[in-house]
Amino acid sequence: MVIAMHRRRFLQYSTVAIAAPALVGRALAQTGASATLPIPPLMDVGEDAGNLLEAVTGRHRFAENFEAETLGWSRDHLGPTLRMRRGRTARLTARNRLDSPITAHWHGLHVPGWQDGGPQSLIAPGQELEQRLDIDQPAGTFWYHSHPHGRTGYQVYRGLAGMLLIEDDDKASNNLPLNYGVDDIPLIIQDKSFSSRGTLEYDDDGMAAMQGFRGDRIAVNGALAPKARVPQGLVRFRLLNASNSRVYALRFNDNRSFHQIGSDAGLLPAPVERRKLQLAPAERAEIVVDFSEGAAARLVSEDVPLEMMGGMMGGGMMSGMMGGSSGPATREGVFRVLDIEVDRSRTGAITALPQELLGAHLPTFDEPVRRRRFQLNMMMGMGMMRGIFGGRPKLGINGKTYDMDRIDQQVRLGETEVWQITADMMSHPFHVHGTSFQVLSQNGRPVEFGEIGMKDVVWVENSAEILVRFDKPAIADAPFMYHCHILEHEDSGMMGQFTVG
């Protein structure tokens, strides 16, 4: 059932426990009874006061008889799905009820730097920040999470994250599934690690910091290996990789095809048929799956192994030291994400996809006026040895580790640029705040715009080029960020900041 509410109506729903599978152990990935997929409550955020997000501690039940201490936004784990409208103002307050600072970063939103929620915009314990976000960008699937420097990985892993939707008033004109929680379903995918007692484990130094922390269980909307019941017809899934570092190669176990209709920054120009979809950390995708024949399905992911030094170290000693392809995988290297059962008593509202998608986020760039280069550095002096032998490594960009008191780039408002990003030693998801960009090439090969659309995260195996423009200002006291979205890399200094003016 869809729940749209302000704070006074929302709080009564915020403590609902989530049932989960009864087994905690390696067999959990493939066996055990499935929980019903939890659907985060929907919070419509408009211009009225009273929309409140509180960072709180909680105890969340991931599996029967196993509860873990967690964080959440007005809930015990994760947060409500925020829905905002294009062309309108979204007014809400972020309040910190924790004992450490947080931020509220609106990942993918085009807002000024002082509203972006980066590391400079800390909310101290017991304090709150009221924001009025003017929503002026195409409809799409975004998310929000805490972003304090040095603590982002821990806080997101514990649960300070949630999905955020932007909708157009003419959303029905596309003839797409849009009944939230019924045929338009959010899937927040995270990997977790549990102790033998079922408590959450997390490590952000040593080798875990070098490769990024990777759990060995997959949670969707806070439940382990859940089951979704969907109507007989077309169903839309909004996929968010909210994991700290794990890359997913998603497909269905029966090899059925599906259509991708959206990516990070909104709808694609036309549906793209696929059988597999890769999502790096922080990437989003919208897909539509046809269940009109009534057959059940299982969404699975191939385990994407760590690649070091262009793959040279992927299968050797370093891969073993750094976790390699650890995860809840079968012998075929595939693990379970979500079971899907078709409710034949319900007929889907949509029976056919349009050939073109109205309101797609199309590139509107001028000729680029300059080129900037960004080298993502894994080894900063003794940083590699610090990571191997314990402690947090010292990572950086262009030979410099992150410094909150230093502005790394100064960008002109409204000018188009080409950014060239290169990675040493391993692959990285590169995220830019405050805008969306077009990917021009990856590893020297041109990228077809219609295949991936506009983005705010690009997967950099060796190199990538993006076309970018900033239409929102950012000042030195509240700059925008660019960084690797492997959260342990970001926390270890693989981040820079820039002004726009």
UniProtKB/TrEMBL annotation:
Reaction(s) catalysed by this chain's protein: 4 Cu(+) + O2 + 4 H(+) = 4 Cu(2+) + 2 H2O
Protein name: Multicopper oxidase CueO
Assembly description: Monomer.
GO BP: cell division
UniProt keyword Cell cycle, yes or no: yes
Database matches in SUPFAM superfamilies: Cupredoxins (SSF49503)
Domain (Plastocyanin-like) ranges: 63-170, 390-500
Enzyme class: oxidoreductase
EC number: 1.16.3.4
Source organism (scientific name): Sulfitobacter delicatus
InterPro entries: Cu-oxidase-like_N (IPR011707), Cu-oxidase_C (IPR011706), Cu-oxidase_fam (IPR045087), Cu_oxidase_Cu_BS (IPR002355), Cupredoxin (IPR008972), TAT_signal (IPR006311)
Signal peptide: 1-29
GO molecular function: copper ion binding; oxidoreductase activity
Pfam family, one: Cu-oxidase_3
CDD domains named among the record's database cross-references: CuRO_2_CueO_FtsP (cd13867), CuRO_3_CueO_FtsP (cd13890)
Keywords from the UniProt entry: Capsid protein, Cell cycle, Cell division, Metal-binding, Oxidoreductase, Signal, Virion
